[in-house]
Amino acid sequence: MVGIIDYGMGNLLSVFKAFEFIGADVEVFNDPSQMHRYSHLVLPGVGAFRDCIINLKEKGFVEPLNENVLAKQIPILGICLGMQVMAAKGYENGNFNGLGWFDAEVTRLTPDQPSYRVPHVGWTEINSSKNSPLFKGIPANADFYFVHSYYAKCADPSQVAATFEYGGNFTASIHRDNIFGTQFHPEKSQEYGLRILENFIKIE
Amino acid sequence: MLTKRIIPCLDIKNGKTVKGVNFENLRDAGDPVELAQLYADQGADELVFLDITATVEDRKTLIELVRKVARALNIPFTVGGGISSIQDVSALLHAGADKISVNSSAVRNPELVNTLANEFGSQCVVVAIDTRFVNNEHIVHTHGGRKPTEIKTIAWAKEVEERGAGEILLTSMDTDGTKNGFALDLTAKISDLLSIPVIASGGAGNQEHFTEVFTTGKADAALAASIFHFKEVMIPDLKLYLQNRGIAVRM
């Protein structure tokens, strides 16, 4: 069963509904001690990095996350801020430590031309740069819905699963082992977004 | 590459979609959830719901509507109308909205923009500006366009950006409902001045108007209502038309 982590941030209904739509067994849960019940975890999130990591800590999610994701290798998908918080550090409104699952820093988008707006809002094509199971069957020109001002700058290029061009190349998706993240919102990206969620629940 | 967004707008009154000319003479334009679903299927990039009456008794209807829309859709949508507090925003986001839009309440209390951006992130906060050209000046209007203020539109757009707005929804009341095209000069001026996305609204009458607003008007997104509701322009046709004119759109 897919477990969507409710730690007080993010549009859980959309994510829940999208999994329900593809026929997944899915639940939203807010009790960290129940995390072991799920075969797949989803970490959503909108808002700021600082609030995200503080909320995860205060609600007692950090230890169970490390245990289930790092030790027990349960597949997890971070979406938007939920992906960013998997990085080592975040620089939104200060300097904060994230979950540290990726050798990455979350920093402000810096397109090289002013015609590229920040926040980056809208549908943008991505380039999958490695054979991530998440992108199986996604055509090369598929657009996904983004809405963000910060991105995860990865020190290890092998952890970047997809990028997007926006006056420079930025991280659209990260992957290592059983840990996946998308900067864009698959739950808001219609057909191809749903396919990504389908791919995710097939990962064992 | 970022694509230009086509955004149908559903003006909501008592749970129904309505449309007027220059903000008046409202006509019924159908069930909002059905329309929303139709637009999503046709390739709309986002939707905007504006509760144009936004009275207290309508508030519950709106939340219920937002919940229904969220269940029916998997594209992003923005909800606006009568939002003036963290609690209002929280309730709408929990019901499934992705972004909220503030207008009169931000003019009354500009600090609200900072508050909401800090609490929910800039990407969630759209500031809607209704503007009309009065005595040689673009002036901000509030209360669904009924009340003029003393505030100059361009300066206000800059101010809300600095306060943390994530996008501007710029509606020209001079062009709204006329079908004579968007307010290109003003949209371009604001777009040049700001680094956040600008959604142009008001005046769409044909496909060429969209080409103009994305080129001359430098808009990031274009919003329209009646031409979509009354099927004068179909979204798939519009997107093909734009693509043929070299404008990047999601197909």
Please tell me about this protein's structure:
The complex is a heterodimer of chains A (204) and B (251). Helix content of chain A is 23%, strand content 32%. By secondary structure, chain A is of the alpha/beta class. Chain A has one domain: 3-Layer(aba) Sandwich (Rossmann fold), CATH 3.40.50.880. Chain A has an eight-stranded mixed sheet with strand order 2-1-3-4-14-13-12-9. Chain A has a four-stranded mixed sheet with strand order 6-5-7-11, covered by helices on one side. In chain A, strand 1 (2-5), helix 1 (12-21) and strand 2 form a beta-alpha-beta unit. The longest helix of chain A has 13 residues, at 190-202. Chain A is globular, with a radius of gyration of 15 Å. The N and C termini of chain A lie close together (12 Å). The relative contact order of chain A is 0.17. Chain B is α/β, with parallel strands linked by helices. Chain B has one domain: Aldolase class I (TIM Barrel, Alpha-Beta Barrel). Chain B has helices spanning 32-42, 56-72, 86-95, 104-108, 111-120, 153-162, 184-193, 207-214, 226-229, 235-244; strands at residues 5-13, 16-21, 24-30, 47-51, 77-80, 99-102, 125-134, 137-142, 147-152, 167-172, 198-201, 221-224. In chain B, strand 11, helix 8 (207-214) and strand 12 form a beta-alpha-beta unit. Chain A: It is found in: Cytoplasm. Chain A: The active site is at 80 (nucleophile), 185, 187. Chain A: This is Imidazole glycerol phosphate synthase subunit HisH.
The third-level CATH topology of chain B is TIM Barrel
**Helical stretch count of chain B?**
10
Chain-averaged pLDDT of chain A: 94
Structural class of chain A: alpha/beta
Oligomer: heterodimer
Strand fraction of chain A equals 25-35%
Order of strands, widest sheet of chain A: 2-1-3-4-14-13-12-9
Q: Cα-atom Rg of chain B, whole angstroms? A: 16 Å
- According to CATH, the homologous superfamily of chain B is Aldolase class I
Order of helices and strands of chain B: EEEHEHEHEHHEEEHEHEHEHH
How many domains is the backbone of chain A divided into?
1
Strands of chain B, count: 12
Bulk shape of chain A = globular
- Element string of chain A (H = helix, E = strand): EHEEHHEHEEEEEEEEEEH
